[in-house]
Each structure stands twice: as structure tokens, then as C-alpha cells.
Amino acid sequence: MRMTKYFVPTARETPSEAETASHVLMLRAGMIRKVAAGVYDLLPLGLRVIRRVENIVRDEMNRAGALETLLPSMIPAELWMETGRWQKYGKELLRIKDRHGHDFCYGPTHEEVMTDLVRGEVRSYKQLPLVLYQIQTKFRDEIRPRFGMMRAREFMMKDAYGFHPDEASAAEGYARMFAAYENIFRRSGLKFRAVEADTGNIGGSSSHEFMVLADTGEDTVVSCPDCSYASNLEKAESKDRVAENPASILPLERGGAGGASPTDVETPNQKTIEEVSAFLKMPPERFIKTLVYCLDEGKEHLAVLVRGDCEVNEHKLKTALGADSVELASFEKVRELTGAGAGFVGPRGLKMKIVADHLLRGITNAASGANKDGFHTINLSEGRDFKPDVWIDARNARAGDLCARCGKGRLDFHRGIEVGHVFRLGTKYSKAMNASYLDADGKERTMVMGTYGVGIGRIAAAAIEQSHDQAGIVWPYSIAPFHVVILPLNVAKPDLAQTAERIYSELSGAGFDVLLDDRDERAGFKFNDADLVGIPIQVIVGEKGLKNGEVEIKVRKTAARFSVKLEGVGPKIREIADGLLS
Ligand code: ATP
Ligand code: MG
User: Fold this and answer.
1) Is the CB of 151 under 6 A from ligand 1?
2) Which protein residue has the closest C-alpha to ligand 1 atom 22?
3) Helix or strand or coil: residue 427?
4) Which CATH class is domain 3-190+420-464?
5) Model confidence over 503-547: pLDDT tens digits?
6) Where along the chain do the CATH 3.90.960.10 domains lie?
7) pLDDT at 446
């Protein structure tokens, strides 16, 4: 491709709308343009990267025996009603009505549509297992679209669905997909880690997320340095670190048990644990954080207790309670239910279900809100002054906690970008949608499913997050938009222009994707653009070198430079490319 015939609107300035390196650089390198929040144009250069990623994904899916299909984006509501997701999926589901007033949605994921296809066509165990996939545009009305292609509202996803005769076959299919995913991310040049992920209400431990390690990641990867345990924070468990209880248990009432009034202390304007902890001179571990949660959009309200130095983990809460949604109750609701403002709520005397984190078992001489504005209660003891109805793991693991798996290592925390997700679904969807087959004995049985997603655009963005420098993008060779860029430093000089053209034909003929910067621009300008766009190998054709029959080759990643005789350019590029690919 010749730059003069191409469309790469690069920019010097950092666009104000972008926060992360990948977002800034995709805009500056002329790969994408914003149309609306989370909705982007893909320009030619951007699309080339997306196609490269797609091809790697497609190749690995095909090798794993999955078959490519293409399902519609527009999905009738009836299919989503069969699984209950029409109601449950919430506002992320982009819903539309057609001209007849029929409800549809734009697919954010395709379990329903794929299961509908398979239940209609598959009758016999002989047709199973069957793994179907597609690479297609997904729609999710994300609450906070951001970071460009990383969290968009319209984006490309590869989604695959496995249909199996039984659990054993589903486990095999899962392992095959897991391996295919490792290949995809390795071939895309990414440093990644597979972590255990939350299975929500489906249960089991058969869900893994593939995380690209990068400081700007929205996810937290928790791992143990002493064993193979790795999990995302949503699910990460740590060994209980039970706080030492003081030797003597203090009475709650002034003047001893049965005394006049509880030991409420005035704590005006002290709401957060930190504030009250400093004010009362008690460490946060002796506090009982009490939060009122609303389940399934108001179906139930309950109090959740965690130790003052811990954070509530809403994913664990949701899973343990079998809820579809959990969110903090509004200030008004908290007051209505407890008589106090948020910050002054405590477990004693609460008239609602209490769910407590294991770390609070047997805690004594603790402090919490007094359910009275401006007051906290001290000397609370679990069992005597409040009794939780349910004990669960309700807290976030913390860096330095003991690993729950091996009990030896102290957990490390890293930031990660979730690029892929593999999930054993069991019969959740096949049961709801009646996807069954006849086994060898002619008995009707329910199919066992798996679902496997990869974000194509997110892979491209994650690659940039992991690989860039001050000057711009440093593409992994395998997903770079072009392999080589040729930079004649002065196209007005016929010998330079002609040499550049000759190298262009030679390298193109040898199978490289080559961009020829034939623009009549200053050398510095071209160098900047070449570095910004991040093509792995640069061939610089300058006057001085050419006098000796030489050009210069620069490797973007290492900034290594080589002077190479004209006849040696092809072999040298091959050698560098092989090195970058290995
Ligand atoms: P997240 O927790 O980041 O919202 P998710 O759990 O909703 O992701 P899945 O439903 O598992 O994601 O989707 C499969 C893959 O699709 C993800 O691993 C990710 O790579 C990609 N993906 C999901 N949401 C988006 C989005 N809004 N923009 C771009 N890619 C996305
Ligand atoms: Mg999501």
C-alpha cells in the first residue's frame, strides 16, 4: 500500500476524550474515530489489525473443531423470554421494537439464538458434540463505555457454543477451548494469565477468564506465588485472618449486663470507619461495617456485615444469596429500615435478615453504628448482642492475605484486562429451552453446554496497553497492520524514490505486507508517523546510505538499527520477522 493512496489521519495532539494509552494511540494513529459514546468507526489501519486478530481466532477455532456460523444481531424477545433473560439482563440489553410493535433486542451474546438453532436441528447423539461459533458485532448498552475499543457499546466478539451429550464430553470440550484460547493469546503476542472466574448462579468451578496483565486493566488478578492459584478478585478467596479478641469481654450495658443503657457513644459527623476509628481510638478490625443491600430490584432488603478493615464483595454476595442483582439500598431506604442514616447503622436490634462474613464469628468488644444518628455502640459481642442469620464469605481478598488454596503463600494483586472467557454452562440454557436429543438407547436427554467468548477489539487495545512507548504503538508482529514500512527520506530524488519502489515490490512479492511512505514530507515527519503507527520493521532509504548501495533497517520494538546492502534487504527482513515471531 502506498501512503499517498491510503487513509491514515494521524494526529500529534493527545485527544482530550481519551484516558488510556490504547485509546489515545488508536485515535492518534488514525485507527478509530468516535461516533458516539462507545461507538466507533474503524478506519483502514484499524480494520487491518482487527482482521489479523480475527484470523488468528478463526484459525484456532477451526483447529479446535468448531464450525463457523453467522447468526443475526436482531433477536426476537421471545427467545430471551424462554430463559428469563429478557427480564433479568437489565439495561445493558439494547431493546427495540419493529414497525409492528414486536419486541427485539440487539444481541449482547447468543446463547438463546444458538440453542434455538441446535434444538431445531439436532435429534441424535450421533450429531453430538457440536461446537458452533461466529465472529460478529455485539451490542451492550454499557453503563460506562470507556477506553475506546476496550469497553464499547458496539464491538466485535467471537462467541462459541458447545453442545454435548454429557458432562464428560462437555469437560473435554472445555479443555480443548481452553487450550485454543492459550494459543490465541500467545499467537497475538500477549502476556496473559488464565484465572478462575465467578460462575454466578450456575455453580461449579468451570469458568476461567483470560487476563492480559496491564496496569490500566479494570480487573484485579489475584494470584499465589507459592501455588498455581489465580483468580479474579470477584471470586478470590483468602484464608481467614481472625483478629485476636481481647482477653476480657466487656458488658454492653453501662454498669454491667442489665444496666441502664447500652454503651452508645456520641460520634457526631464521624461516619466512615476511618473517622470513627480515629475518634474512638479503636483499630478498624474491631469495627463491624454494616451495609443495607437491596436484592433483585427491591424484592428483599438485608444487612451485610464485614469487619471494618474489609470490603464487601458484591459478586460473592449475589452468588451466595442466589440473587440476580444486589445493590446498596438508597439513603432513604436505609433510614426507613434502620431509623438512622448510612454510617450509623449497626447489627444490634436490626429488624431484617443479617448476612455476615466469616471473619466476624465470635468477635467481641466491637463497635458499630447504633442505629441512631450521631452515635456508635461499643462493646458489641457476636452471639450476645446480635445473631447473624447466614454466614458467608462476603469480603474481598486483600493483597498479602494467606492463599486459601495452599495456606502458605501471601496473595499478590495485579491489574488485568479480561480478553476472553470460557464457561461450562451445564444444562442451564438447554433445560430452559428444551434442547434435547435421543441417546443410544433412544432415551431423551438434555444437552450439556459450554460458552466461550473473546473480544476482538479488546485484544487489539490490550496489545497496545502492553506494548507502547513515548513515540507510539509497538505492535506485536502477528497482529500489526503492516509488517514493514518503507521510508524514502526525499521522494523528490528519483534514485531514492525508485529504490524505495524496488524494495516495495520485492518485499511485497516475498509475502510481506508493506506500506510505502511515498509522501512528499520531511524525514522527521515520516519518522514520527512510522513510530506512532507502530509497524514492526522500518526500512529507511536515505541519500548517504544509497551512495554505498545501502539502506537502514530499524526494528521498532528494540530500536536496533542495521545498515544493509540493497541485495541483502529481503533476507534481513525475513530474519528479523522470524525473530519477532518466535
Ligand atoms: P466485562 O466484565 O469486561 O464487562 P463480560 O464478563 O461482560 O466482560 P463476556 O460476556 O464474557 O464479558 O464477553 C466475552 C468477551 O467479550 C470478554 O472477555 C471481552 O473480551 C469482550 N467484551 C465484553 N464486553 C465488552 C465491551 N463492552 N467492549 C469490548 N469488548 C467486550
Ligand atoms: Mg460486561
Assistant:
1) yes
2) 455
3) coil
4) alpha beta
5) 999 999 999 999 999 999 999 999 999 999 999 999 999 999 999
6) 242-392
7) 98
Site of grid cell 485527544: 15
Q: Provide the 3-class DSSP secondary structure of residue 180.
A: helix
Sequence-distant (6+) residues with CB within 8 A of 77 are: 86, 95, 102, 103, 104, 105
**Which fold would CATH assign to domain 482-581?**
Rossmann fold (3.40.50)
In Å, the largest CA–CA distance within the chain is 102
Query: Which residue bears the cell 450456575?
Result: 202
The single-letter code of the amino acid at 236 is A
Q: Closest ligand to 209 CA?
A: 1
Closest CA to 21 of 221, 216, 218: 216
Ligand 1 atom with the shortest distance to the CA of 423: 11
pLDDT one-digit tens code per residue, 143-190: 999 999 999 999 999 999 999 999 999 999 999 999 999 999 999 999
Cα dist. 202→391, 424, 427, 428 in Å?
A: 20, 9, 9, 7
Write the single-letter amino acid at 172: E
pTM for this predicted structure: 0.90
The DSSP bridge partners found for residue 211 are: 193, 418
Cell 433445560 locates to 431
In this structure, the residue with its CA closest to atom 13 of ligand 1 is: 453
β-partners of residue 412 are 223
User: Whose CA is closest to atom 12 on ligand 1?
Assistant: 421
Distance CA 398, CA 392 (A): 17
Distance 448 CA to ligand 1 centre (A): 23
Q: What does residue 125 show for φ and ψ, rounded to 5 degrees?
A: -60, -20
In the chain, CATH 3.30.930.10 sits at: 3-190+420-464
Across-strand partners of 484? Answer: 514, 537
CATH match for 242-392 among 3.40.50.980, 3.90.960.10, 3.40.50.620, 1.10.10.10: 3.90.960.10
Give the ligand at the shortest distance from the Cα of 452.
1
* Atom number of ligand 1 nearest to Cα 210: 18
